């Protein structure tokens, strides 16, 4: 009987924790000297009910970074051996541990999976050719020269795997070539001069083309046929940009002939082939470039009014009237702009030959680089070293004569 009284009179570990963490053992009921009803010991404490742990939201997914070298650290703090550990204590201990406390010698998933063409730079020229350069070569930088087009090449894009190039030009054709073998894979015929091409980020077999007659077509590489066509009596397509999931895309058109400025920027639904909005930008300027922000629900448009405008990427796609990126010049040139991979900076070419870097949040001018004497029409961040290698710059010479293309790599610390 004494053993039963002792067992039921003592509290458990969970009772100690709920009572403030004291280690004092309560006096058992059999130790009471008086057996009168008034001095009888209270009934034994009941074990507290189980309570679910509070919901802890998962930590945000960071941008994949190369893992640091593995270093053996001190073992994680644990409860002293020989002591009973309740389920609640084990759950709280597991929740309090951070993933950083258990380093792994293996890099995170996605690290080091950059395409093999990260050191290559491609250019489309007015001399009917597409050049591929090795930017790290100290000698002959020309790796490939493709001469499959019969007229000027207006735009080109790397495939998502980095092994092929898609180009379109004034010969009303789109040509897909294998960079490694130097062979033409497939030819897509158009009824208009091709001005711009863009791969669908969610499906590497689909790409979008826009031309001089205002037609937008979605092509399938496997069949070589048009799967969808987007018609709205538009002017020349100046630029197109897919959303990150590929469900929507923005097109910028030349509205100088129709005098209808509300069609200068149109947001399309990719599957339904219907415009979600065509009254996004109502100012009397064309926009040679549109770019989605890599993370936030917004996009920017380079305006011939010598500024970059910001818009919401959600319906009703309103213009932010209080945010403009000013200081550079456009003046009718096809000046492009691009976001950094972190989305914190916005870089733009300029008609004065300089590169301008803006802070995305405040639109403040961060720095300016004097790159060329003629207009700098395009700027892009390096895919492998986004923090210190700012751009692969396209410089298009516009004066009469033999136009050429010059590329330069700039390092900014």
UniProtKB/TrEMBL annotation:
Where is there biased composition of kind Low complexity? 1-11, 92-101
* SMART domains in alphabetical order: WD40
Domain Translation initiation factor beta propellor-like residues, every copy: 141-269
Q: Where is this region: Disordered?
A: 1-114
Biased-composition ranges, Pro residues, are 54-77
Which Pfam families does the record cross-reference, listed alphabetically?
Answer: eIF2A (PF08662), WD40 (PF00400)
> Can you say what this protein is called?
Translation initiation factor beta propellor-like domain-containing protein
Native organism: Leersia perrieri
Organism placement in taxonomy: Eukaryota, Viridiplantae, Streptophyta, Embryophyta, Tracheophyta
């Amino acid at each position: 009987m004494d053993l039963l009284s002792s067992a039921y009179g003592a509290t458990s570990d969970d009772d100690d924790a709920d009572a403030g963490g004291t280690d004092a053992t309560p006096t058992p009921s059999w130790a009471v000297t008086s057996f009168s009803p008034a001095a009888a010991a209270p009934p034994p404490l009941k074990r507290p009910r189980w309570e679910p742990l509070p919901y802890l939201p998962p930590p945000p997914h960071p941008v994949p970074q190369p893992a640091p070298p593995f270093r053996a650290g001190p073992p994680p703090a644990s409860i002293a051996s020989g002591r009973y550990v309740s389920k609640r204590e084990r759950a709280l201990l597991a929740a309090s541990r951070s993933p950083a406390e258990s380093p792994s010698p293996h890099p995170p998933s996605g690290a080091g999976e950059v395409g093999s063409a990260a050191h290559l730079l491609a250019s489309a020229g007015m001399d009917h050719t597409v050049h591929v350069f090795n930017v790290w070569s100290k000698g002959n930088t020309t790796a490939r020269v493709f001469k499959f087009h019969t007229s000027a090449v207006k735009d080109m894009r790397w495939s998502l795997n980095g092994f092929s190039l898609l180009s379109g030009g004034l010969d009303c054709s789109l040509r897909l070539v294998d960079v490694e073998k130097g062979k033409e894979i497939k030819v897509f015929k158009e009824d208009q001069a091709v001005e711009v091409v863009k791969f669908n980020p969610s499906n590497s077999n689909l790409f979008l083309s826009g031309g001089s007659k205002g037609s937008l077509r979605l092509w399938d590489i496997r069949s070589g046929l048009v799967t969808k066509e987007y018609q709205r009596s538009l002017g020349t397509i100046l630029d197109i940009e897919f959303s990150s999931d590929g469900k929507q895309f923005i097109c910028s058109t030349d509205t100088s002939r129709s005098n209808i400025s509300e069609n200068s920027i149109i947001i399309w639904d990719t599957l339904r082939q219907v415009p979600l909005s065509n009254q996004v930008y109502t100012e009397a300027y064309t926009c040679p470039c549109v770019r989605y922000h890599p993370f936030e629900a917004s996009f920017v448009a380079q305006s011939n009014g010598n500024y970059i405008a910001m818009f919401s990427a959600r319906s009703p796609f309103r213009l932010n009237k209080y945010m403009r990126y000013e200081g550079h010049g456009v003046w009718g040139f096809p000046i492009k702009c691009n976001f950094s991979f972190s989305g914190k900076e916005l870089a733009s070419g300029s008609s004065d030959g300089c590169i301008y870097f803006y802070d995305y949040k405040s639109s403040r001018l961060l720095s300016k680089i004097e790159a060329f004497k003629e207009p700098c029409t395009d700027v892009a961040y390096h895919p492998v070293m986004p923090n210190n290698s700012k751009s692969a710059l396209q410089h298009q010479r516009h004066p009469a004569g033999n136009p050429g293309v010059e590329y330069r790599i700039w390092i900014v610390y």
